């Protein structure tokens, strides 16, 4: 598959890049259908927030142009954008004038079992906990060792995702998904002010639910609340929504609100 | 300056490297004098510990051989080794068979002001806190955004280092150094079981102090304990020891134990 660095075809990166040295950068994983990058405004909005918080200077119009052009070339699949702070010298101090380096990579859409969306999935109970870091919470940054370790906890195909808690035992998210639960008709997802990635599909579903008049709540979630949920599902901007049918000894039916939002997510990813 | 990837001269890296994608790897920064990599056994020992904890398969004899050969070529300066989990596909799951990728880069020794070692330095009081993550604590891994953010807190040359606390307010380390304090003749440094990097010079100084019959303590340190310290210094394996003369409103004289250990560190880095 093709890849670009700063708008030019390339398959290699400078060894001095601070993305490699320190994970000093951000990324976005964008579904592409019929040559279009999907949920592009939300991806760009999260990227801009990340650039602002990490103070990575970036021409956002140029990023948008490149994403659109790359998606047109890719046609179908997944487009990954990595934005690093560019080359560094020795040491953590960053050049405040440095421009972000744009790395675009294309790949085929992942071939997930159709049952994930239809029957629902089992969540693996990860023992790896998310650490509390408000300065990075919500960002899709390149420091992902917690996810790498959590994902290494299970190899069996029987678990399509894993659930991660924070050090206080709060329910936060999947390894590569956000989590929602439904209780008495209210759509609930974790507050990500301490840790976690504020997913693009999560934001879109909160928006869609509010548009439909469905009450939503962004709050701290305990394992006990999970236990009493009527419906549980995970989501991301590539696969849409997977109902969760089991986690450890808990189980849930695939519920009507999950199916309703799944139909909406499917339409968004089938644009 | 020269650089090698897996033993071959190279100045670029595969865009698929998991070091870039997730910070999935480790690094060591090694002083080189007269063609010799200094404190090599301690650097390799920490690297092996990191590979074992992150389950990165690595031929450690080969790593040693390459470090020795690269240092001989470099002559004088600093050798940086980055060890990543190699190329990945999409997703966090790692290939358990994957071999670590070895990236070696040489640079000139940093030109720190001589006053840092002679007169001592002022520590900047960083507001960026280190997050608690026992699974990564002590490792010199590639997830370094906390250090990048902390180092961006000051630009003035009047602060040669910054002090980082954890979220509970414990005194942990410098941004690129470990911290020691001396109180009633006891050499004290922070317990790094929750966060922090277990520095090679820190380990060496604890060993040297014990060899000299100097009592040592590895424990949690509060700001109040720092306030009552007789001597304070920071250290790493490139610059050795810098006495700390001030932090916020606190100040300390350059003490005799600091000078004694500084002489030892200097000898180790002048091999």
Description:
The structure is a homodimer of 271-residue chains. In chain A, strands 8, 9, 10, 11, 12, 13, 14, 15 and 16 form a nine-stranded mixed sheet that branches. Chain A has a six-stranded antiparallel sheet with strand order 2-1-7-6-4-5. Chain A is globular and about 50 Å long. Chain A has 271 residues and is an alpha+beta fold. The longest helix of chain A is centred in the N-terminal third of the chain and has 15 residues, at 40-54. The first copy, chain A, is built from eight helices and 16 strands. Chain A folds into two domains: 3-107, Aminotransferase class 4, branched-chain amino acid transferase, N-terminal domain (D-amino Acid Aminotransferase, Chain A, domain 1, 2-Layer Sandwich); 114-268, D-amino Acid Aminotransferase, subunit A, domain 2 (D-amino Acid Aminotransferase, Chain A, domain 2). The first copy, chain A, has helices spanning 18-22, 40-54, 60-74, 114-118, 145-151, 200-211, 223-227, 256-268, and strands at residues 3-5, 8-9, 12-14, 25-33, 36-37, 77-84, 101-107, 121-125, 161-165, 171-174, 178-183, 186-190, 216-219, 231-236, 240-247, 250-251. In chain A, a hairpin with a 2-residue loop joins strand 4 and strand 5 (36-37). Chains A and B meet through strand 3, helix 1, strand 6, strand 7 and helix 5 of A and strand 3, helix 1, strand 6, strand 7 and helix 5 of B. Strand 3 of chain A pairs antiparallel with strand 3 of chain B.
Which CATH top level class of the largest domain in chain A fits?
Alpha Beta
Mean pLDDT of chain A, to the nearest integer, reads 96
Tell me the helix content of chain A: 25-40%
CATH superfamily heading of the largest domain in chain A: D-amino Acid Aminotransferase, subunit A, domain 2
Q: Please, what is the oligomeric state?
A: homodimer
Which band does the percent of strand residues of chain A land in? 25-35%
Q: Which protein chains make the most extensive interface, counting residues with beta carbons within 8 Å of the other chain's beta carbons?
A: A-B, 58 and 58 residues
Low-confidence runs of at least 5 consecutive residues of chain A: none
Distance between the termini of chain A: 23 Å
Describe the global form of chain A: globular
Structural class of chain A: alpha+beta
Task: Tell me which CATH architecture of the largest domain in chain A applies here.
Answer: Alpha-Beta Barrel
**CATH topology description of the largest domain in chain A:** D-amino Acid Aminotransferase, Chain A, domain 2
Number of strands of chain A: 16
- Counting H and I runs of at least 4 residues, what is the number of helices of chain A? 8
Total tally of structural domains of chain A? 2
Largest sheet of chain A: 9 strands, mixed
What would you report as the Rg of chain A, rounded to the nearest angstrom?
19 Å
- Along the chain, the helix and strand elements of chain A come as EEEHEEHHEEHEHEEEEHEHEEEH
């Amino acid at each position: 598959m093709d890849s670009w660095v700063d708008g030019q075809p390339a398959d290699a990166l400078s060894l001095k890049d601070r993305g490699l040295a320190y994970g000093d950068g951000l990324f976005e994983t964008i579904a592409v259908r019929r040559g279009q990058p999907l949920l592009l405004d939300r991806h760009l909005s999260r990227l801009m927030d990340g650039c602002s918080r990490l103070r990575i200077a970036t021409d956002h119009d140029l990023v948008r142009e490149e994403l659109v052009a790359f998606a047109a070339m890719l046609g179908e699949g997944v487009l990954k954008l990595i934005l690093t702070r560019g080359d560094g010298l020795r040491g953590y101090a960053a050049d405040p004038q440095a421009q972000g380096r744009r790395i675009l990579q294309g790949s085929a859409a992942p071939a997930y079992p159709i049952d994930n969306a239809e029957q629902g999935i089992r969540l693996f109970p990860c023992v790896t906990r998310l650490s509390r870091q408000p300065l990075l919470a919500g960002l899709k940054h390149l420091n992902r060792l917690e996810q790498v370790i959590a994902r290494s906890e299970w190899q069996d195909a029987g678990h399509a995702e894993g659930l991660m808690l924070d050090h206080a035992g709060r329910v936060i998210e999947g390894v590569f998904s956000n989590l929602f639960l439904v209780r008495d008709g209210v759509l609930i997802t974790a507050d990500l002010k301490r840790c976690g990635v504020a997913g693009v599909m999560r934001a879109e579903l909160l928006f869609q639910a509010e548009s439909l008049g469905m009450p939503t709540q962004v709050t701290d979630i305990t394992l006990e609340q999970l236990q009493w949920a009527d419906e549980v599902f995970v989501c991301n901007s590539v696969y849409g929504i997977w109902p969760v049918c089991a986690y450890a000894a808990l189980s849930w039916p695939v519920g009507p609100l999950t199916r309703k939002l799944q139909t909406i997510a499917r339409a968004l990813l089938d644009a």
